[in-house]
Design a protein that fits this description.
The structure is a homodimer of 478-residue chains. Chain A has 478 residues and is α+β, with helices and mostly antiparallel strands. Chain A has three domains: 260 residues, BirA Bifunctional Protein, domain 2, CATH 3.30.930; 95 residues, Anticodon-binding domain (Rossmann fold, 3-Layer(aba) Sandwich), CATH 3.40.50.800; 71 residues, C-terminal domain of ProRS (Translation Initiation Factor IF3, 2-Layer Sandwich), CATH 3.30.110. Chain A is 35% helix and 27% strand. The first copy, chain A, has 15 helices and 23 strands. In chain A, the strands form five sheets. Chain A has an eleven-stranded mixed sheet with strand order 3-7-8-14-11-10-9-22-23-21-20, sandwiched between helices. A five-stranded mixed sheet of chain A has the order 16-15-17-18-19, with helices on both faces. A three-stranded antiparallel sheet of chain A has the order 4-6-5. The two termini of chain A are 43 Å apart. The interface between A and B is large, with 55 and 55 residues. β5 of chain A pairs antiparallel with β5 of chain B, so a sheet runs across the interface. Chains A, B: Homodimer. Chains A, B: Catalyzes the attachment of proline to tRNA(Pro) in a two-step reaction: proline is first activated by ATP to form Pro-AMP and then transferred to the acceptor end of tRNA(Pro). Chains A, B: Pfam families: HGTP_anticodon, ProRS-C_1, tRNA-synt_2b.
């Protein structure tokens, strides 16, 4: 019984040690475990169920927009990876190499895919011939491997899970529209489903994807003031098509190169959920992706009728939400803490007195607000409350981001702000990579994005004082 | 326009060249394409949609039985693979080895998982402590890699997709029940959803999984008389638990080893669908997993009202089945052939005369039976017809299997039957591995399984004449 009565252990507070708070949550909420393979995670059932919910929502959106899922090989022959010069330069230093199959050395090394542009292009070369074959709108759900030196659960791991969309279009215009469309899918998903406000914008040349002509990003601000790149969408022009000799015959019977995009969102976003919404009691999950949306906890469950009523409610609510009931021997207090740790959006308490009054108590995870609800009104009230939780989470995250967004007009101001105030710093930029490098070196910030919503903060570059071209969001980043 | 008017090319007939017929179908029905990586497939949208349907049905069944999905690493350190002696012997010769990460040689080689028993055990060691932690019912959907020398699309590939269930139980009894339960899930899935009749039984020691105490299998018979192992379920006893030092404290506070199972079904089953149901016009898909269940083909689509009516039906039927409408410029004849090639279970034809009569024509893929159906009755009639297709496919496959199942009571008879009549051969066996090897050598057959439904065919072993212990299904196999 000693085992059963143990308390839910407290986690390190955010204030005390943010990094430890983060790893405490991923472990105590049972999202993942460390494996014997350096930098590779074991994603446990609760963590994987979150990813499955993310996958199902996004997959539905992709398919509604005409995308189709495929499965490409896990391996890329070295010669294939080398076909596009910028791409291989970007990825070769961080791939895992397979050199032997069974006892035999392979004639050519294979890398474990770090991303699959080259594989898709190799296939597109075989299947794209005429304008009628376009567009090709493919996507795959898989894991990829990048040999990172320093790793952190979900945020940066050697193996991680993602979806990668790879599309081919007849014209540059169409491909650019696709790039923008998919960035918007990600932004809407983050804001409307995950309650994470994001800044949409374009990456500077220095920060763009290896081989891309343009990289677009959504950037979210974490609790500790660091930025998280949460989804990216790339426009490749016809660069890969030329390297892979992919051509199609247009309506006038002339050969043309198609134009390409790719876009991805990964398990990293689970780190983003934790660090946007979590608090010192644990995880706070957006209802859309919470494996359990409502946890029913019977009070004084040994009393006659309580467990029966709790079970009756579970069976009823199963039709409208993801619900569980915990009838274990643990105390209600233990259960409250446990499911707060796990970030369950709503707790439903039901005891003998509630049953007498034909009511129950619903407690929101995000602000602990209690509501007494008639048992007759549950089907109407629960969706309402889940939506209120989502809205509450979004508003809180947005208010924090606004509070933690600063501006700087001089290098001194940039250094001081970066040093003293964690968050985004908006500042003007001349467009010169030398200034980006200097800001990184002297203020420790990188350019997060050139936001679509531009503001005019000053006439001159925050770094060099020459005429400014663009407003940029700067910050420290994961 | 020349491109548009091309005919659907005929495929090689089954009679003429079965292997070529098979590869013609996988290519012409656009299930897969070959990649630049030896033995690794590209699964194209239509093929992957079949796998997604298989996954969704099985995943639902697994979850209903209390299983949870997780994600284990892609890599296994060499030392971990070596912990269980039989297991490493079975798999080490056919794994891909990662030796370098980026520019650096790894301190220990990693193999790309060929199966994940060792990874699950390594994790279970950390999370199983008390009887309260049992059972653990985990599953994962992923790809695995086995360095096969000879490969064929879906049937044997270097990389293939599967689910692997790995469970831990307090007692041998419970683990054995799980092994049997999951075999039954596979058998029911094959028979009821895929319309593939299977023989359930146990593998001989020679054929069992590396490290298992018992392997159970479902064996299906393909069109050409070869057997296809279509799903397996393994009982491990506490062998891995001992090797990995996984113990739990029982209710009497004593340390115990838990008992283990694993079970898997792979993309190989898509090969099984092709070779069980396909014909010389192409693929024939079981409705449960067909990406398109009903294809609407407008007749004389340039005539007023036809396309509008076809689209109206599509919108209506979308609510009850997976439906598409083809309004391309191709001729109806071309479309008929095309969707027969793709194995669409039902074709719905609608033309001006049908519209006048408020009816349409429904044509079954499995037997080309035509039915005129009133447009008012479609919602009732289509599910009925889909079920009739499934039943028709199953009956046909079962009749063929029965026709192609023989018995033998002497070595001579076995050799003659194996030589002349493709199919299963039922024969008695003494239990000695030497006889299995001799039958393989002299008759070219392997033991497929010792079926649960035993028959007494003779008193003596078909091979050596000593007293028989078991009836065995023998055959040539994929």
């Amino acid at each position: 019984m000693a085992e059963q009565k143990k308390m839910v252990e407290a986690i390190t507070s955010m204030e005390e040690d943010f990094a430890k708070w983060y790893t405490d949550i991923v472990k105590k909420a049972e999202l993942m475990d460390y494996s014997s393979v350096r930098g590779c995670m074991i994603i446990e059932p609760y963590g994987w169920a979150i990813w499955e919910n993310i996958r199902d929502i996004l997959d539905h959106e992709f398919k509604e927009l005409g995308h189709e899922n495929v499965a490409m090989p896990l391996f890329i022959p070295e010669s294939l990876l080398q076909k596009e010069k910028d791409h291989v330069e970007g990825f070769a230093p961080e791939v895992a190499w397979v050199t032997h199959g069974g006892e035999e050395e392979l004639p050519e090394r294979l890398c474990v895919r770090p991303t699959s542009e080259t594989l898709f292009c190799d296939h597109y070369k075989n299947i794209i011939h005429s304008w009628r074959d376009l567009p090709k709108l493919y996507n795959q759900w898989c894991s990829v491997v990048r040999w990172e030196k320093t790793t952190r659960p979900f945020l940066r791991s050697v193996e991680f899970y993602w979806q990668e969309g790879h599309t081919m279009h007849a014209t540059a215009q169409e491909a650019m529209e696709e790039t923008e469309r998919m960035l918007n899918v990600y932004a809407d998903f983050c804001e409307k489903q995950l309650a994470i406000p994001v800044v949409k914008g374009r990456k500077t040349k220095k920060e763009q994807f290896a081989g891309a002509e343009a990289t677009y990003t959504i950037e979210a601000l974490m609790h500790d003031g660091k930025a998280l790149q949460s989804g990216t969408s790339h426009y490749f022009g016809d660069g890969f098509a030329r390297a892979f000799e992919i051509t199609y015959t247009d309506k006038e019977n002339k050969p043309q190169y198609p134009h390409q995009t790719s876009w991805g969102m990964s398990t990293r976003i689970i780190g983003g959920i934790i660090m946007t919404h979590g608090d010192d009691n644990g995880l706070v999950l957006p209802p859309a992706v919470a494996p359990i949306q409502v946890m029913i906890i019977p009070i004084a469950q040994h009393k006659p009728g309580v467990l029966e009523k709790a079970e009756e409610l579970r069976a009823r609510l199963k039709k409208i939400c993801r619900v569980r009931m915990d009838d274990s021997e643990q105390s209600p207090g233990w259960k409250f803490s446990q499911y707060e740790m796990k970030g369950v959006p709503l707790r439903l308490e039901i005891g003998p007195k509630d049953i007498e009054k034909n009511q129950c108590v619903l407690v929101r995870r995000d602000n602990r607000e209690k509501t007494f609800v008639s048992l007759d009104e549950l089907e109407a009230k629960i969706p309402e409350l889940l939506e209120a939780v989502r809205q509450g989470m979004y508003d809180k995250a947005l208010a924090r981001r606004e509070q933690m967004t600063y501006t700087a007009v001089s290098l001194e101001e940039m250094k001081k702000t970066a040093d003293e105030k964690p968050g985004f710093i908006k500042a003007m930029w001349c467009g010169d990579q030398a200034c980006e490098e200097k800001l990184k070196e002297e203020a420790g910030v990188s350019s997060r994005c050139m936001p679509f919503e531009q503001e005019h903060l000053s006439d001159t570059c925050v770094c060099c004082g020459r005429p400014a071209k663009t407003m940029v969001y700067w910050g420290k980043a994961y």
